[in-house]
Design a protein that fits this description.
This protein is α/β, with parallel strands linked by helices. The strands form two sheets. Strands 6-5-4-3-2-1-10-7 form an eight-stranded parallel beta sheet, with helices on one face. Helix 1 packs parallel to helix 2 and helix 8 runs parallel beside helix 9. It is globular and about 45 Å long.
Length: 250
């Protein structure tokens, strides 16, 4: 498994070049991008190429999949990126019924089929609203009922939303392409102050990395939604995962 940086972690740092510069300075060689950064696909791809970083995965919002699908294909091709991820369902398209989630799953499957024609796999990224309900009947279960859609677990959201993240990871181990490596302290409330740098929260990384080692997971994306120190988060996350992989996974 490769250790990479998620651009959402550094989104407050100015333009794309500034974000990529810090990620490179922190020792990363791989990234996961978010959207288009208000750039044309060719311009965004050029800046990423100039950074020397490799794009392992790319996030695009629901409205971007709906309205800019051809541009997504162009950008993925220019960045030589093999994975697209649906990271978020805004409240206005977030279902409240089983039938609604089944419709979302069907739409995701259609996009997955189109992407597959171009050699790209589609993964769904969870939060907390899709982890509600009985085990096996959660919205996430409905989304992953179609085997053309893969999963990108957000470990932080799992830690604050389900009793045992390992159970869910084991259930869908064969569908995991990558994870957001994010730590959390559920005792800190409901807001963004729950998130922690890796190794500073409650996540049992030894146990979870053991599960991921026996899955198709190829990338661990260091993320922190609202870090007060971007460089510290990136450096801490990278070193923590390097040590974990060395001592626990081998």
């Amino acid at each position: 498994m490769r250790i990479a940086a998620q651009l959402y972690t550094v989104r407050q740092l100015g333009d794309l070049v500034a974000q990529l510069d810090l990620i490179s300075a922190c020792g990363f060689t791989d990234i996961e991008t978010i959207g288009f950064h208000d750039l044309l696909p060719r311009d965004m791809a050029r800046l990423v190429t100039q950074s020397g970083l490799s794009v392992r995965s790319a996030h695009f919002d629901w409205d971007e999949f709906e309205g800019r699908f051809d541009e997504i294909l162009t950008l993925l091709d220019l960045m030589n990126c093999p994975v697209a991820v649906m990271p978020w369902l805004p409240p206005e398209v977030r279902p409240s019924t089983t039938e609604g989630w089944e419709a979302v799953a069907q739409q995701l499957a259609q996009w997955a089929k189109r992407l597959a024609h171009h050699g790209v796999r589609l993964a769904y990224h969870n939060h907390d609203f899709d982890l509600v309900g009985e085990f096996g009947e959660m919205p996430l279960d409905l989304v992953l009922a179609n085997e053309t859609v893969f999963w990108q677990p957000d470990i932080g959201w799992l830690a604050v939303s389900v009793a045992d993240p390992a159970d869910l990871l084991c259930r869908y181990a064969g569908r995991i392409l990558s994870v957001h490596a994010k730590d959390a302290d559920p005792r800190a409330g409901q807001g963004d102050d729950r998130w922690r740098n890796l190794g500073k929260g409650v996540v049992d990384w030894s146990r979870l990395l053991g599960i991921l080692e026996n899955s198709p997971c190829s990338d661990l994306f260091v993320e922190h939604d609202e870090t007060p120190n971007h460089a510290e988060t990136l450096l801490t996350g990278r070193h923590f995962l390097l040590n974990q992989l060395k001592t626990e996974v081998g």
